[in-house]
Amino acid sequence: MMKVVLVGCGAMSKRWLDAARQIDGLAVVGLVDLDVERAQARAREYGLASAVIGTSLDAVLDQTKPDAVFDVVVPAARREVALSAFAHHCHLLTEKPLADSPDNARVIIAAARRAGRIHAVVQNRRYVGNVRRIRRFLDSGAIGKPTSIHADFFVAPHFGGFREEMAHVLLLDMAIHTFDAARYMVAGEPVSVYCQEWEPANSWYRQGSSASAVFDLGGGKVFTYAGSWCADGFRTSWEGSWRIVAERGSVLWDGHDGLKAEVVASGRDGIVDKTAPIDVPLLDPADRVDGHLGIIQDFMHAIETGTEPETRGTDNINSLAMVFGAIESAETGRRVAIAQETQ
């Protein structure tokens, strides 16, 4: 039985606990939150009568001695939670983003390495079925190597609360999902970015609800991102809408179930090469999906086998670097180089 303590009992904790109760061999032995009544309410809601409840993570870890910590706190508290978990010899699975700054991300990763503990991030868009299918299809070489990746994200949520007041709201709170998916689908790594943010007249956010960015992903691959959190009408999926252009064809994904591809065929229609539909294979049994559930299972498997989880912090920091590179570019008005973090 693997014992875990969950810290941060806000709304997002429900997704973690919904997944956790589907997993045999996993026991939530403690709940931590600055609001003890909120932690107690979660315990009642999920039938965790024997879980230790507290406001101090150190105290609950001392009492329960778990194998791992589930971190669902606000990003500003992530470094403190991570250092506490590693000091108690716990593995750590954290909600995205990995950290609230590049320096704190490096501190967390270094602490995990020193402690010899597994550290991973809930970057759950990688566990979407069509993201897996696209990666496998592109890896097959059926349409050649990808060269241009385009993602649109246009949704208009009225969150209320802190998001509507935060700076760089789209880039900092949401864009990492799209950035990480792009990295994964085309096996690219960020080299540089140019980004512009703006606040449309119809926006109800304080700053940064709309952004456009161009990334160099290395190896001749360029990724363009266009997004808005105040675009009413014709909204995209929360996964975005994608076009991936390769050497001999293209893939289109609407972010829902609409996934199709075309490959260059023989002959031309006038001055344009003919194309023909080509099947994108269905999911392989080895593909890991199911969002939070899939990631938690992957994390547990890594602990049990001594392997690395797919969304390990040492990889995810490069998706986070895309976010902070884009923010720096938007603030300075210049192209920003993105240093590759060591794995």
TrEMBL record:
Domain GFO/IDH/MocA-like oxidoreductase as annotated: residue spans: 131-251
Keywords: Oxidoreductase
Domain Gfo/Idh/MocA-like oxidoreductase N-terminal: 2-121
KW Oxidoreductase (keyword) present: yes
Any Pfam family the entry gives: GFO_IDH_MocA
Stated family: Belongs to the Gfo/Idh/MocA family.
Protein name, entry field: Gfo/Idh/MocA family oxidoreductase
Organism: Mesorhizobium montanum
